[in-house]
């Protein structure tokens, strides 16, 4: 088993990464909690809820199963979980467990952050993508005007990553998760990026996959430890997300997974970087790699002004100017603001070039 300790200014918490941790879950949980509430989604529940409930038999344990998908990060779902938690009799000494991908983690984490002004929670990620979302304490639900607009920084007590759960992920979820690993490599580690470019993510052995996850988590850990509240370098973790979040909303949640949208967002940020700093190599090799892995890059007609307006709700916006994370070179991210006009030009030329690039 691999282990890491995330130390921030205010607190610290362990990450355990290994196989068959679910069955030994009670070893990692303080026995003094008055009750435990497991929050998961329907798909994850069919595979893993029994294991978790059995492992927690000594606790007064409850569970809530939500519908899978981004639509569940809603104010209605959030309120419903609060209602159920109250009816189960949870108190300030109870624990919430988020068992699932980033949707469950973000939602359950935000419930934990707000229930009776905050109770403990533990992340049990079950997707590749959640190697990112389970670390760093960003918890949130969506507002109809934008993604993750209602949220908190609220760190878990622990992250327990049983990588055996990843065996049931389908191809779409594998590529979705790898988009965030690629992001982490691009902003900080050229050798890792080059290594990923040589990988076929659908045919990796378990050991290689775990190494990729561990590497990605170490990059994320190192950033959030230095800048827990995104005052500075944590903004780089948003590489690719300004366009990604806007696209996810414009197309309708679920049309693209978060990671698939991030993949397009990474290309967009690299396309602008190439224009600003004059080197298109990274854009081209990544486009090629995404094509080889069947990332959905063919986007139906984009409404450029609508997309721009959605991008302007991004949390990095400064004085109503869109602030993009760009790459001077791999491992050298930089922030740059753009006028609306510049952005419209970039969105238009990027999508036109992307559609041509896909045909090749
Ligand atoms: N808080 C953060 O720092 C952060 C970081 C990245 C992404 N996010 C958020 O995370 C969310 C995306 O997370 P995600 O991609 O994990 O999505 P998800 O939670 O919706 O999971 C993807 C799909 O995989 C299924 N699934 C989960 N585990 C499975 C397993 N082991 N086997 C089979 N199926 C499984 C789920 O039921 C779901 O249908 C987005 O809402 C995004 O905004 C947050
Ligand atoms: O942890 C971070 O910081 C990130 O930016 C990680 C992103 O992958 C993640 O999608 C995050 O939720 C986006 O941040 P947001 O503040 O724009 O919601
Ligand atoms: Zn993300």
TrEMBL record:
One of its GO terms (cellular component) is cytoplasm. Binds 1 divalent metal cation per subunit. Can use either Co(2+) or Zn(2+). The keyword Transmembrane applies. Residues 177-317 form the 3-dehydroquinate synthase C-terminal domain. Its EC number is 4.2.3.4. GO terms for biological process: amino acid biosynthetic process; aromatic amino acid family biosynthetic process; chorismate biosynthetic process. Pathway: Metabolic intermediate biosynthesis; chorismate biosynthesis; chorismate from D-erythrose 4-phosphate and phosphoenolpyruvate: step 2/7. One of its GO terms (molecular function) is 3-dehydroquinate synthase activity. Catalyzes the conversion of 3-deoxy-D-arabino-heptulosonate 7-phosphate (DAHP) to dehydroquinate (DHQ). This is 3-dehydroquinate synthase. It comes from Cerasibacillus quisquiliarum.
């Amino acid at each position: 088993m691999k282990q890491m300790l995330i130390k921030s200014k205010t607190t610290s918490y362990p990450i355990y990464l290994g196989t068959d941790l679910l069955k030994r879950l009670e070893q990692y949980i303080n026995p003094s909690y008055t009750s435990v509430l497991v929050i998961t989604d329907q798909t994850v529940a069919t595979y893993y809820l029994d294991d978790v409930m059995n492992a927690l038999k000594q606790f007064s344990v409850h569970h809530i199963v939500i519908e899978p998908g981004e639509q569940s990060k809603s104010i209605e779902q959030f309120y419903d979980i609060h209602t159920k938690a109250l009816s189960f009799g949870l108190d300030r000494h109870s624990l919430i467990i988020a068992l699932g991908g980033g949707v469950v983690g973000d939602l359950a984490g935000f419930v934990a952050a707000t229930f009776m002004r905050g109770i403990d929670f533990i992340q049990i990620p079950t997707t590749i993508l959640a190697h990112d979302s389970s670390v760093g304490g960003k918890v949130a639900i969506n507002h109809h005007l934008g993604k993750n607009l209602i949220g908190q920084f609220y760190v878990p007590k622990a992250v327990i990553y049983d990588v055996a759960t990843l065996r049931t992920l389908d191809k779409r979820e594998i590529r979705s998760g790898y988009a965030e690993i690629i992001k982490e490599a691009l902003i900080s580690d050229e050798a890792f990026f080059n290594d990923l470019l040589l990988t076929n993510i659908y045919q990796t052995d378990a050991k290689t996959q775990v190494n990729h996850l561990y590497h990605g988590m170490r990059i994320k850990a190192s950033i959030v430890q230095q800048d827990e509240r995104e005052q500075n370098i944590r903004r780089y973790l948003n590489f690719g997300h300004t366009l990604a979040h806007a696209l996810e909303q414009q197309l309708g949640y679920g049309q693209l997974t978060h990671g698939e949208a991030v993949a397009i967002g990474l290309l967009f940020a690299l396309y602008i970087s190439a224009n600003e700093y004059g080197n298109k190599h990274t854009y081209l090799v990544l486009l090629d790699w995404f094509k080889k892995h069947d990332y959905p890059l063919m986007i139906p007609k984009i409404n450029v002004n609508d997309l721009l307006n959605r991008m302007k709700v991004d949390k990095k916006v400064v004085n109503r100017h869109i602030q993009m994370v760009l790459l001077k070179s791999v491992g050298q991210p930089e922030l740059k603001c753009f006028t609306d006009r510049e952005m419209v030009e970039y969105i238009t030329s990027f999508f036109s070039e992307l559609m041509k690039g896909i045909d090749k």
